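Protein modeling request. Please complete all fields; requests missing the sequence field cannot be processed.
Requester role: graduate student
Desired output: 3D structure, token encoding
Chains: 1
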Amino acid sequence: MFKRILKWFGLILLLAIIALAIFLTNLIWFRPWSLNLFYEKVFAEAIFTSPELLSQLGLVEQFGITGHNGKLDDEGPAHQQKQFDIWKRDLAQLHQYSLDRQSPSQKLSTHILDWFVQDQVDGEKWQWHNYPVNQLFGVQNTLPSFMANTHRLFNRKDCDYYVMRLNAIPHKFDTLLDGLRVREQKQILPPRFVVEEVLKEMNDFVAKPAAENILATSFKEHAAKIDKLSAQDRQDYQAKVEAAVTNSVYPAYRKLIDYFNGILPKTTTDDGVWKLPDGDAFYAYALHSQTTTKLNPQELHDLGLSEVARIEGEMRTLLDANGFTGQPIGASMDKLSKDPRFLYPNDDKGRADALAEYKRLIDNAISHCGELFETFPKAKIDIRRVEPFKEATAPGAYYQPGAMDGTRPGIFFANLRDMNEVPKWSMPTLSYHEGVPGHHWQISLAQEMKGVPQFRKVLPFTSYSEGWALYCEWLAKQSGWYDNDPFGDLGRLRDELFRGVRLVVDTGIHAKHWTREQAIAYMRDKTGMGEKEVKSEIERYIVAPGQACAYKVGMLKIQELRARAQQELGAKFDQREFHEAVLKNGAVPLEILEEQVNEYIAHRKSA
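Delivered output (607 residues):
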């Protein structure tokens, strides 16, 4: 009897293994039977080919999957082409699922995924039209930041992975160099200023003793918090880290430095992508990808000019009422930016005080969010200074999402390189944009969505996410957060003017052949922003064509949809419900956002 039971158990187990093998074979190599499984397959393919993205998301460590934390991304041409081949296959398979059989939720997921994957496939033609090593978010400066702020250090194994990653940098940079040489063959080289700035940054990076490099100092700081490490353990690991910096990291950077020294004589001072092969067509693609609209460069340029004029009118009224009657707007804002009563000391205490003020502004915003939102994110937010090694060319601020398992908070990075660039009246708007209720609120809510495919929680649509953050600056004004603070309100308007100017200068540089100096002069004249800040902003638009246009386009669309909801719903309009309709599906292209808000309006009307 026991042998018979064992025989039947073995047969059942064999059948189960065969069924599992068939299921996995279908899931991995063919189109899955289930659409929901297909969604997760696409997501898994995307993240498991990027160890760095997998670490950033913090999704799988809770299941004991940690091996990726000892690896780095492959930057090589073969890997890049493999990704495009996967996108093309995924798009073809997605179209094989009948829409008639899909639930409303699946139809929305399919619509979003279709838009995103098609955009990736369209980008294959332009896969070399970028500068992966640049002064803004290049491989060479994001990698140290990733190791300092994203790589998790909770136990001994994490320390081992940290050392493994440092020793993997030479291979990563070799694959990066392979791609740079392909671009060079295709006559795609960065503008001269980019090469000059990254050379200075990298030379400064390798000039420090290993023990003083951010890769060593940040490790030391985090390892000190690991309880299960003895003092000797910490000392041993620190020695391994510093040895890896000396023997692996620095030689890899010097190899990259040699390459950039070699191409420097070949570079030019032409800054726009019009200079690249089929540059005008590439810029049209970049604008469509970033704004998720069909607006062309001239339409966006004209939109920028009209927005600049409108915002200047509002600023004129405020300036006239606060001691600047008749004085030019740019010059007035420049004067206000240098007014001692609005400046922190340009020292460590001034920086600490500014970070404390950012925290106070964020905490105060959170306390008022009950008036604006139905749903609150669980994720916490931290405020930190941009690391000194990269602050010279980094933007004024940016947001880094938290880990999806809650082990790392969202981080609002503020650039404090020069406290004369951070007037107090500029700080509220920056807090609301990067932190609450801007990026932190929207991105955290998306990451915490339930009952949707994983890709819906992380897809980046710039026009939606940046449009939302800019809309939140305006929303703060509507909510009375600037009452009795005319200079803070001027800071808000100056920042909105800045986004209008972005439309003008981005299209000016990339479609109208403006020089970098011409764009800097225009932005300085219109906004009165500091010279160093404006320079880094204009240089940002040069290496990220079209991205700066997404902000204003997204904001105007959300404002348009809000006005439509208010007009059609009248007394039934509730901004908390409207914001729920905008946020509940995560980031989406603007055309899909409009469809969702229209559905909300129709549903609310019939309620």
